[in-house]
Amino acid sequence: MPELQRLRADHAPALLAFERENRAWFARAVPDRGDAYFADFAVRHRALLSCQDEGTDHFHVLVADDGTTVLGRFNLVDISDGEAELGFRMAESATGRGLATEAARAVCHLAATDYHLTSLRARTTVTNLASHTVLTRTGFTVAGETAPDSSGGERMRRYAKALGGDVLRVY
Length: 171
Ligand SMILES: CC(C)(COP(=O)(O)OP(=O)(O)OC[C@H]1O[C@@H](n2cnc3c(N)ncnc32)[C@H](O)[C@@H]1OP(=O)(O)O)[C@@H](O)C(=O)NCCC(=O)NCCS
Hints:
binds coenzyme A; Ribosomal_N-acetyltransferase; 7-stranded mixed sheet
C-alpha cells in the first residue's frame, strides 16, 4: 500500500519528478506553478522544510510501494489559531483508486492527533468535482463560495471541517 510520509529533504528528487511529469495534468485543475518553481525547486524545498520545522505548515507525500515514487502530496498550510488549510494533488496515473480520499483522511487524523489542530479549511473551483468528492467524503462541508474575480477566474468553493471524535477513521 502507498504510504503517507512527512516531507523530508531526501524526497526532493522524487517530488520534483512528480511535479514535472504531472505539470500539464495539474494545470487543468489548478494554476500552473510557473517555470521559476521548477528552476528554483531545491531552494524552495529547503524553505518548505524550514516552515515545517517552525510549525507553520505540515507537508506530506504519498509514496508508492517502490518506496521512492511520489504519487501525491497532502499539505496542511498557513497554520494559525489551531486551524490550517488542506491542499492536495495526485499524479494522474494514480487517480481513480480512492487514494486521495484515503490520504486526506489520514492527514485529517494527523492534524487532530499529532498536530493538535482543531479545524481545517479547504477550497477548490466549483467545477473540480473530484476534489469536491474527496473533501466531502473526508467530512468537509461547504462553507460558501467566492464571487468570480475581475479577471474572469472561476468561482471557488470553500470548505470547513471541525476536528473532533468523528475524524479518527483511518485506512
Ligand atoms: C482531485 C484529486 C486529488 C482526486 O484524486 P483521486 O485519487 O482520483 O481521488 P479519489 O479516487 O479518492 O476520489 C475521487 C472521486 O471523484 C470522482 N471523480 C473524478 N472525476 C470526476 C468528475 N469529473 N466528475 C465527478 N466525479 C469525479 C472519482 O470517480 C472518485 O469517486 P469514486 O470513488 O466514486 O469513483 C486528483 O484528481 C488531482 O490531483 N487532480 C488535480 C489537482 C487537483 O485538482 N487538486 C485539488 C485542488 S483543490
